[in-house]
Specification:
The complex is a heterodimer of chains A (about 375) and B (about 675).
Chain A (H helix, E strand, L loop, with lengths): L1 H29 L6 E6 L6 H16 L5 E6 L6 H10 L6 E5 L1 H9 L12 E6 L3 E5 L1 H9 L1 H7 L2 E5 L7 H10 L3 E5 L4 H9 L5 E5 H13 L4 E5 L2 E2 L5 E2 L10 H9 L6 H15 L2 E5 L5 H16 L1 H11 L4 E2 L1 H12 L3 H15 L4
Parallel strand pairs in A: 1-2, 1-3, 6-7
Antiparallel strand pairs in A: 3-12, 4-12, 4-13, 5-8, 5-9, 10-11
Helix pairs in contact in A: 1-12, 2-12, 2-13, 4-11, 5-6, 7-11, 11-14, 11-15
Chain B lengths: L1 H18 L1 H19 L5 H12 L4 H18 L1 H7 L8 H12 L3 H35 L3 H13 L1 H4 L4 H15 L2 E2 L6 E2 L5 H4 L4 H18 L15 H10 L1 H16 L8 H11 L13 H24 L5 H12 L6 H6 L1 H29 L7 H20 L2 H19 L4 H41 L2 H19 L15 H22 L4 H27 L21 H34 L5 H22 L16
Antiparallel strand pairs in B: 1-2
Helix pairs in contact in B: 1-19, 2-4, 2-19, 3-4, 3-17, 4-16, 4-17, 4-19, 5-6, 5-7, 6-7, 6-16, 7-13, 7-14, 7-16, 7-19, 8-22, 8-23, 10-22, 10-24, 10-25, 12-20, 12-21, 12-22, 14-15, 14-16, 15-16, 20-21, 20-26, 20-27, 21-26, 24-25, 26-27
The chains are: A alpha/beta (about 375), B mainly alpha (about 675).
Family (chain A): Belongs to the UPF0065 (bug) family.
Protein name (chain A): Tripartite-type tricarboxylate transporter receptor subunit TctC
Keywords (chain A): Receptor, Signal
């Protein structure tokens, strides 16, 4: 993804920089947040993934914004993260002093048409998109057999995994398992991916998945000890919207590769459309930063420039690998493309997913 | 031997890391911040860590860790102040401390109770650190041997403690547990996400938090009780005994302290059990192993020593799964993990292998922080205990605005305050009719674990049955570890039954059957409503738990109602605090009126203006203070809370009326 992106990105960058250098210098003269506090609303609790992400960015953003304002992370959890998003959509002044950090769990209810959602992504201006990936892993024996003959391995085993719920990010692996014909029995009620991994480590579950950072820090040691092995990654989205190998895990086959191997044809149909839309929303455009509806172009440009500066900052790059993985932190035009991919879904596809959730997991939306 | 060869040099190296002046200073800074934040009830490790997190980035690894550990380690020490002095559970881990700590304060033994608590905290903390240092090297297989069925059995062990905490009427205890579980079931169901008793309200979807329920069930009734009397918290108005006596108390009960610290470590080590039950298990154990049980709940010093030894030891134990598996045992540990990432370390098995000295610097920090924290707290306890000698009406308005601030932090919405008042009314009734409030709280705390683990164990066993038949499923459900826990449960129940409750020193107040009957019928109606509501859910899995719990509770409630109706006079059945011969001069409803007024003023004008107004009015009309003194009191009190929350980066309630929405 990084390689594929870099050309187009650089070209776009060059153009944008050329065009913007004028605008930016103008904007920076006008916009200053000196002595102000920028509130960064995170619709989740302290200590969660989105909170960590925002707190990691906050000091860098504070340095890069004109006037070096204080950047304070404000946690506003509730109603599956829709409360913070609704608050941002309805109650916030477009003065650049309040920004919003959207997470996968904020995007999924939006895509599923959850009645609690009273926000509209296209109203907002996106200034940063952070991506991640995900890896499905199992025991070394199953993984070895799966690599050799996935169809037979799936026929011989029942797969048990801990899950936070079918309408959460788990929707992506669960739908994927269904498409592969893998008999997965999710055990609901865990409260974080860490618990799912613990269930696997205890031998209660025989399959599990983690996002990239979770996999790198806590599953790779298990792989090294011969206690776990990867089955496939979810992949990454390139500039054309195609799914390619995850740049963090270039040696692990993607879900699409396995699916083609199992079904013998290129993926298509409503379930594929659904999988892809939710994969982008949940992983590729997992975390985004927004300015509210009605924000002036100058302020948006100031934020865009600030995030450009942050992701190019050597200190940021040096320390971000561990926390954010080696994924592009999309700004400017890239961010807008990602936003579109991650928040658009056709009525048919949505209907299909809602129906699938009802029939398979008894979830009424 | 091999173990020692790895551990000892690493321990020595770690001591070197901590002994550098700058690292030690950061540790002390963390301790001081932790003490300040922890003193405010309801604010704990999460708030404190969030406060220092922006500064952690950029510190060297050892200093950053020392700062964070110093802070986390003293929270269970400092939250004791609120529990003992004010009767407000300072945090989830010191709810049981209230039961005997607060009566001790009202008898004028605040300093003694505090110093005994801090000595126990100190010992528990050191014990936890010592265990952590050895255990972290060998804990992996042990932690992994606790699967879902074992966690379920441990949850049941927690429930078994209700048997000793039910007071006069086991039947009321049973119904209270069921009621607590039903209140906990409000919100999104854990398995398939059905909405239980949410009435379409988004606030209820997330369920009630422990902070709100703890404040409502314990703090509100106690405060209102005090407010009726116009006296200081300490009934005698003085401090009967000093801090030295508390230290002697601890020494006389050192074996109890060791046992409870062990309980604390074990509960902490096992991920998934949660810190909120540790103090109840320790308290239950303390009651079980005390010969004369009549003084519990009325100011028994052992009731302070037990839970306080356990809750500090839990922090050491809790670091085991956090560091070893990267699974946070609590919200505070989740923020701690985030802080570690900012310092460039990832918790997990790799850290244990490659950075053992760094890991051990955490152990040393933990031990040192406990010594410094408990030392400071003991030194302060004599002075702070004087709070209990201030006439309560002068003190109450400040306490009430702190409580509303605390309650608001749990969801950061006005609904928090509404929920607080509602739960508070329930708490008042439970207290009035002598329904065991600890039993209610245990039900509330353990409900979701009980439901989730039952559901998960059933699911996993079903799949095992499909693959390997009955033997496989049974072997999963009843592992050797599980059988051991079953034996402990049986032992715990036997201990509870062995000593029958002893005779009362005086006859408790009881009167006509009407009032107790009305409340019992009300509880039955709530349970029945929960049952009907659950029957309307579309998902069977989400129905089964609330239906079974409410059915059991209803059954017990019918028996109780029948008994109350049939029997003429019985202290356990017809207990009614309002039927006592000498009642305090004022009605309890007057105090409630003030609380509702406070919520109303905050909702109308926002916190800053509302709280100032409330304190001033309260002081003028209720405490008969001169108006200009009252207004300055209001300004100072509200100003302090507003300033503090700015400093801590916390939100304050906004007015619901747009024109009053100002910067605060």
């Amino acid at each position: 993804m990084k390689e594929l992106f870099s050309n187009t990105r650089h070209a776009a960058f060059g153009l944008a920089l050329g065009a913007m250098s004028f605008a930016v210098s103008g904007a920076q003269a006008d916009v200053s947040f000196e002595g102000e506090t920028v509130e960064w609303i995170i619709p989740f609790n302290e200590g969660g993934g989105s909170d960590r992400w925002a707190r990691f960015y906050a000091p860098f953003l504070s340095e890069a914004l004109p006037g070096k304002p204080t950047v304070a992370v404000i946690n506003m959890p509730g109603a599956g993260s829709t409360r913070g998003a609704n608050h941002f959509a309805q109650r916030v002044d477009p003065d650049g002093l309040t920004i919003f950090g959207s997470g996968g769990s904020t995007q999924l209810p939006y895509l599923l048409g959850d009645p609690r959602v009273e926000y509209e992504y296209s109203d907002w201006s996106v200034v940063l998109v952070s991506s991640t990936g995900g890896i499905v892993y199992s025991t070394p024996e199953i993984s070895e057999a799966f690599a050799a003959d996935p169809v037979a391995t799936m026929a011989e085993n029942i797969f048990l995994l801990g899950s936070q719920g079918a309408t959460r990010l788990d929707l992506v692996p669960l739908l994927g398992f269904e498409m592969l014909g893998l008999d997965a029995r999710p055990v609901f009620g865990i409260s974080g991916r860490g618990e799912g991994r613990l269930m696997f480590e205890r031998g209660e579950a025989n399959i599990d998945w983690q996002t990239s950072s979770g996999y790198l820090s806590r599953v790779v040691p298990l792989v090294e000890q011969g206690l776990a092995a990867p089955l496939f990654s979810f992949g990454a989205v390139d500039a054309d919207g195609d799914i390619v190998r995850d740049p963090t895990f270039p040696d692990i086959p993607t879900f699409v590769e396995i699916l083609e191997k199992v079904t013998g044809e290129a993926p298509a149909g409503p379930e594929w459309e659904a999988w892809k839309a939710f994969f982008v929303a949940g992983f590729s455009a997992q975390k985004m930063v927004f300015l509210p509806d009605g924000t002036s172009d100058e302020i948006v440009a100031a934020y865009e420039a600030a995030f450009e500066e942050v992701v190019a900052n050597a200190d940021f790059i040096a320390s971000s690998g561990k926390e954010l993985g080696v994924y592009p932190q999309g700004t400017g035009e890239t961010a807008e493309i990602q936003l579109k991919l991650g928040t658009t879904i056709s009525e048919d596809t949505r209907g299909w997913v809602v129906n699938w959730l009802r029939e398979k997991f008894n979830v009424d939306l | 031997m091999d173990l020692l060869n790895t551990a000892l040099p690493a321990l020595a190296e770690a001591a070197g890391i901590i002994a550098t002046p700058s690292t030690f200073l950061y540790l002390c800074l963390g301790v001081v911040v932790g003490l300040c934040v922890g003193v405010l009830p309801g604010l704990g490790g999460i708030a404190g860590l969030s406060l220092v997190l922006p500064f952690v980035y950029g510190l060297d690894t050892a200093s950053g860790l020392a700062l964070m550990i110093g802070l986390v380690a003293v929270i269970p020490t400092s939250d004791t102040f609120a529990s003992v002095l004010l009767g407000i559970p300072g945090s989830a881990a010191s709810q049981a401390t209230v039961l005997d700590g607060f009566p001790l304060s009202s008898q004028g033994h605040a300093a003694r109770a505090l110093s005994a608590a801090f000595m126990s905290s100190l010992f528990g903390g050191l014990f936890g650190a010592a265990v952590l240092s050895v255990f972290i090297l060998v804990a992996r297989p042990l932690v992994l041997s606790f699967g879902v069925p074992e966690l379920l059995l441990l949850t049941i062990l927690g429930f078994s403690m209700v048997s000793v905490l039910s007071g006069r009427s086991p039947l009321k205890g049973l119904i209270a547990v069921a009621l607590g579980m039903i209140v906990a079931s409000i919100g999104e169901a854990p398995a398939e996400g059905s909405q239980r008793m949410t009435f379409g309200n988004w606030y209820l979807q997330d369920g009630l938090t422990l902070v709100i329920v703890g404040l409502g069930i314990f703090a509100i009734p106690e405060i209102l009780g005090l407010l009726r009397e116009d006296k200081p918290i300490s009934k005698s108005g003085g401090l009967g005994s000093g801090w030295f006596e508390g230290i002697r108390d601890w020494w006389q009960n050192k074996w109890l302290s060791i046992r409870c610290a062990t309980i604390g470590v074990i509960v902490g080590v096992i991920p998934g059990l949660g810190g909120a039950v540790v103090d109840w298990i320790a308290y239950g154990h303390t009651v079980q192993t005390t010969k004369d049980r009549s003084r519990f709940g009325k100011g028994e010093i052992r009731g302070v020593i037990g839970p306080e030894s356990a809750n500090n030891a839990k922090e050491g134990g809790g670091l085991v799964p956090t560091l070893l598996f990267g699974v946070p045992g609590s919200g505070a540990m989740a923020v701690f993990l985030a802080g570690m990432v900012l310092l460039g370390i990832e918790a997990g098995p790799a850290m244990m292998r490659q950075e053992l000295p760094l890991t051990y610097s955490i152990v040393w920090s933990l031990a040192l922080a406990n010594v410094v924290g408990a030392g400071l707290a003991i030194a302060l306890s004599g002075g702070i205990a004087r709070l209990t000698t201030i006439p309560f009406p002068l003190f109450a308005p400040f306490l009430l605005i702190v409580i509303s601030f605390t309650a608001f932090q749990s969801g950061r919405t006005m609904w928090d305050l509404v929920a607080l008042v509602c739960v508070g009314i329930l708490g008042i009734m439970l207290k009035r009719f002598d329904w065991p409030r600890p039993a209610f709280l245990i039900g509330f705390v353990l409900a979701s674990q009980a439901e989730v683990y039952t559901y998960q164990a059933t699911q996993i066993a079903t799949v095992r049955h499909t693959i390997g038949g009955w033997s496989s499923a049974l072997a999963y459900l009843l592992s050797p570890v599980g059988i051991c826990i079953l034996i402990v449960i049986a032992g715990s129940l036997w201990l509870a039954m062995r000593n029958k409750p002893q005779g009362e020193d005086h006859t408790p107040p009881f009167g006509s059957r009407t009032a107790p009957l009305i409340f019992a019928v009300f509880v039955a109606a709530v349970l029945a409503f929960a049952m009907i509501d659950s029957m309307g859910l579309s998902s069977f899995i989400d129905q089964i738990f609330p239906i079974s719990v409410s059915a059991l509770g209803l059954l017990a409630a019918f028996v109780l109602i029948w008994q109350v109706w049939r029997n003429a006079e019985s202290p356990s059945l017809h207990y009614d605090a309002e039927a006592a011969e000498t009642l305090p001069p004022r009605s309890i409803w007057q105090g409630l009126f003030w609380i509702v007024g406070l919520v109303g003023m905050i909702a109308s004008f926002g916190f800053a203006i509302g709280a100032t107004l409330f304190v001033s009015l309260f002081l003028i009309f209720r405490a008969n203070v001169l108006w200009y003194k009252a207004v300055s009191g209001g300004l100072i009190g509200a100003g302090l809370v507003v300033g503090l929350s700015e400093l801590l980066g916390r939100d304050l309630p906004q007015s619901v009326i747009p024109m009053f929405q100002i910067g605060f």
